[in-house]
């Protein structure tokens, strides 16, 4: 605190000591206020990203909804410049969401593709999130192999495999995938699972824009001024309690 020296009826205040104290208070308060405002903006950005995911993907999987997180700003050595927070997407969701952010082409065998030769892009009966059900390709592949083996056995025995409505893998009218055989002679095959060598993505998830919008809303000069006033009061209250 400032030193006060009585000389007669006059009090002299040590200006240098007062300035040092005020500078120390300001440094601490500014650093804390910067961290508080930055962290709030980051937390709000995480909330905004979750809401944006619901708007874009309709029914995002829990892994997608929980993929957004932040690392809070921490003050190091009282330096306000170190008060930086990070907003990010956790793995494994980041591996597939970045295609929705950046757009582009996904090819077989890349970043968790369906297999070395194919990408599954459509299912007749999607899961509750609108995607290809987990294990669907394995189930249809197993069913296809069993049917092929049964047909081969029937031919070897000189018989005709008479089961209708089975599953085959092939290309119909330029569309490749697993198909259900028609149950009637005049029927058409039904596409069960579509596969493609490449999948093209548009930029539909606005990650950076969403984070920047939250920053503009919650890291404004007005918010910083309010937080700075609170932090100065806290610092002064703490210094006043020391003996």
The Rg value, from CA coordinates, equals: 32 Å
- Order of strands in the sheet with most strands: 6-9-8-7
| Number of helices, counting only DSSP H or I runs of 4 residues or more | 6
Q: Termini, distance in Å? A: 11 Å
Estimate the strand proportion.
15-25%
| Tally of discrete structural domains | 2
| Uncertain ranges | 112-117
Instruction: Write the H/E string, N to C.
Output: EEHHEEHEEHEEEEHH
Which term fits the overall shape? rod-shaped
Share in helix: 40-55%
Mean pLDDT across all amino acids: 77
Global structural class: alpha+beta
* Count of strand segments: 10
- Characterize the largest beta sheet: strand count, sense, and whether it forms a barrel: 4 strands, antiparallel
Protein architecture, described:
The protein has helices at about 15-55, 60-65, 95-100, 135-155, 205-220, 220-240; strands at about 5, 10-15, 70, 85-90, 105, 120-125, 165-170, 175-180, 190-195, 200. It is rod-shaped. The N and C termini lie close together (about 10 Å). The model is unreliable at about 110-115 (pLDDT under 50). It folds into two domains: about 1-105 and about 205-243, no CATH class; about 115-200, no CATH class. With about 240 residues, the protein is α+β, with helices and mostly antiparallel strands. The strands form four sheets. A four-stranded antiparallel sheet has the order 6-9-8-7, covered by helices on one side. Strands 1-2 form a two-stranded antiparallel ribbon. Strands 3-4 form a two-stranded antiparallel sheet.
